[in-house]
Amino acid sequence: MGVGGGGGGVAAGAAEWPDRLAEARAALDAAMAAEPGPEPESAAAEAGGGSGAGVTLALVRTMLGSAPPRWEAEPLRVWADTCSVVALEIHQKLDAVGESGSAAAATWLVRCREDQAAVADAVDGTEGGDGVGPLVAGELRRQIRVLEILGDPAGDAGAMRRAMDLSTEGQRVLRAVVSRRARARN
Predict the structure, then answer these.
(1) DSSP result, 109-143
(2) How many CB atoms lie within 10 A of CB 143?
(3) How far apart, in whole angstroms, are the C-alpha atoms of residue 19 and residue 7?
(4) pTM for this structure?
(5) What one-character-per-residue DSSP string does 16-84 give?
(6) pLDDT in tens, 53-64
(7) pLDDT digit string, tens, across residues 55-88
(8) First and final CA of the chain: distance in angstroms?
(9) 3-state secondary structure of 2
(10) Angle between helices 103-114 and 73-94 (to 10 degrees)
């Protein structure tokens, strides 16, 4: 059973949580070992310096490190909220308009966490004059849609599949961006 496939995933809940968490951490450790350049834990990486991939891996390592060891609703909810913010930060770092880490984009991310109008603007596609690019707005729309699908009390058996499909779509978008950047550097 791989990190992203096989097994029961979220639907299996507590039964598979510790093993899947360990698999995800091992896969991330392998990815970090393969990342060239300075150690992600270095002060430069934490301050936003270093390679973009190293900083992103450090963010993901922090996120995985904070995962609750047991499958319990409240710690998982808090962790999921943190994961949401980290995902938006990663998208901002990869977004063409977020490259410089503009203060306006960082402010927008904070507003999204606190202000429903900012979220509504992103969903409608009207946000954008404040340094937020299409990757961040698209990720926020996917996150909102996943929550709507999973929060629907009349949800059917296909709800989990639709949520996973949205997640997979987001992964494809990020892979394409990273691939384009790698080709541009070479």
Answers:
(1) HHHHHH-HHHHHHHHHT---TTS--HHHHHHHHHH
(2) 21
(3) 11
(4) 0.66
(5) THHHHHHHHHHHHHHHHHH--SS-TTSHHHHTT-S-HHHHHHHHHHHHHHTS-SS--HHHHHHHHHHHH
(6) 677 778 888 888
(7) 777 888 888 889 999 888 889 888 888 888 888 8
(8) 35
(9) coil
(10) 150
